[in-house]
Amino acid sequence: MNISLRSRIINDLQEDRAYKQNKYDGSGLKIYNRLILKKENKIRIGLLTEKDAGEKSINDFTTFHFYARDLGVVKSILAGDYLIEFGQGLALWSRYSISKGTETVRILPRNGKGIIPYLSSDENLFLRGAALQLSFSDLNLYSFISSKRLDGTINTLTNEISAIRIDGFHRNQNEINHQKIISEKIFGLSAEYNIGENASFGLLYCISLYGNNFQNNAILDPSGNRFNYFSASYNYSFNKLTFSGESSLNSGSIATINSAELAVDKNFTLLFSYRNYPKEYWGLHSNGFGEKDGAQNERGFYSGIKMKTELGTFYFYYDQFVYPYTSEKIPFASNGNEFLFYYTVRPLPNTEFRFRYIYQNKDNTAVIDDQYGLIKKRTENIRFELTYKASKNIQMRSRVNLSMVNAPSEKGILLFQEIKYLFLQTLNLSARVIFFKTDSYNSRIYEFENDLRGVMTNPPLYGEGMRWYIVSQYRTSFGLNLSMKYSELFKPGERTLSSGDTEIQGNLDNRLSFQVDWQF
Predict the structure, then answer these.
(1) Picking from 9-13, 188-192, 327-331, which range would have the lowest pLDDT averaged per residue?
(2) pTM above 0.90, yes or no
(3) Residue 90: closest CA among 201, 224, 249
(4) pLDDT for 123-141, tens place per residue?
(5) Which of 135, 189, 371, 433 is paired with 250 by a 20 to 30 Å CA distance?
């Protein structure tokens, strides 16, 4: 039996307005604890508890599962919390998936994992109950059932669901009043059949039931409390071509995505994908490929290229998309397009150069001559990056990032220098210093950071200032790993940072995080 323990504490050292005014019941500590028991990669038991900053209970959120696999015809069986990934994500998928980025051709088709044991800190978008997979040679059968309660808002006059809340915050009585007030029940069956090694076909039937009707105020709002999903997916490879897709029926409308990949040779690959998600199609657990989350009110055509040459590797994509109907953010039909060029090369031993250019052109709302309408907002982002491995223990990385926006005309720049150092195979250090200057939040630049294992940090940097952090990890010989991160944001020209309840008096925002991992 293998046992894995993880405990993490994150503390924002500056007290913001909400804590000073005692708006939250709990401390500012964010606390995470996880336990995993495994036996021969066939049996797994997982338990996780989490407390967000401001919450009172150390186990405000708890998730658990028992999972077993490869038990004869029973390929997998699970009780507790889980996710289902089917087809291309139009009916059921996990919340996080690979979307548009520098990997321009391998993002489609998606390869669903079927039943996935859930052990994450997202507090709403998972299933809770039981799931079973039976395997008969080329045929896989799935059944699943889920019953849980969601955070949200119910209109007291109509008794209808007016909102589903997914932030997971329960920091004061007002937020606690919205906790677990919406019941959700999901039942489903699916089958996947492999036709030789080059083709597969899948079918899914799923019912989602909610304890109240949804309040249908806007054109994209769901209606009723019962949603039936009939979905079919396919994947077929022939010679150098691969075709894949999924079509899903819900509320009388069909959402569909279909893709074709052509691998001309090992150095040149093309990808084309068309998606059409009607306004009537809605699914809380849908996560289809597209410009925005979900699989609703969007048509688009995506083209991607990857080309390896002696001069380096070139990546391109061009995505055109249309929102045929109004939405909450834009009360007009709108459209846009996006282009990426990414280039990477190793000009010298131990040296890698990367260049990335992203161009976005999207409709955005604005007031022009006292009239509310649409304008084209153009955003350009240019990045130069150089990575150099000075020795087997030292690696350095430098980046210059430029941002340009037209509505209104703004620009920004970000520079950083990073160093990673490995001491005697037991101690890792990673440090980065970032300088940035942008005209406003509109020209912000995102900067994905190194962090503790299991933590993702990608802060938007705007205004003028400096950010730096250091991450250390110490590995012992008996399976105990200790990690720490300290980060600091400094804006010398500001008297306050952020706004509203998160406003901090002063121009410094710093955070300290600790994590313990123990495997035995």
Answers:
(1) 327-331
(2) yes
(3) 249
(4) 989 999 999 999 999 999 9
(5) 135
Q: Which of 186, 75, 168 is nearest to 129 (CA)?
A: 186
Cα distance between the two ends of the chain: 9
In Å, how far are 245, 366, 409, 410, 415 from 373, measured between CA atoms?
A: 36, 6, 18, 21, 36
- In a 3-state reduction of DSSP, which class is residue 19? helix
CA-CA distances (angstroms) from residue 426 to 429, 473, 477, 484, 492?
A: 10, 8, 9, 14, 37
Please compute Rg for the chain using Cα positions.
25
- For residue 448, give the 3-state DSSP assignment: coil
Q: For residue 488, what are its two tokens?
A: 């600091």
- Rounded to whole angstroms, what are the CA distances from 158 to 162, 221, 239? 10, 16, 58
Distance CA 139, CA 217 (A): 44
Q: What single string gives the DSSP state of each residue in 418-440?
A: EEEEEETTTEEEEEEEEEEEESS
Contact call for residues 337 and 361 (beta carbons, < 8 A)? yes
**What is the distance between the alpha carbons of residues 118 and 48, in angstroms, rounded to a whole number?**
10
CA distance 433 to 437: 14
Residues 78 and 163: their CA atoms lie apart, in Å, by 30
Closest CA to 145 of 183, 95, 189: 189
Instruction: Give the DSSP letter string of 163-211.
Output: EE--S----SHHHHTTTT-EEEEEEEEEEEEEETTTEEEEEEEEEEEEE
8 Å CB contact between 87 and 231: yes
Q: Report whether the peptide linkage leading into residue 408 is cis, meaning its omega lies within 30 degrees of zero.
A: yes
Condensed to tens digits (0 to 9), the pLDDT of residues 269-314 reads 999 999 999 999 999 999 999 998 889 999 999 999 999 999 999 9
Q: Which helix (H) or strand (E) holds 478?
A: none
CA dist., res. 346 & res. 344, Å (int): 7
Q: What angle do CA 197, 97, 54 make, to 5 degrees?
A: 150
- Chain position carrying tokens 């919340």: 95
CB atoms within 10 A of CB 408: 11
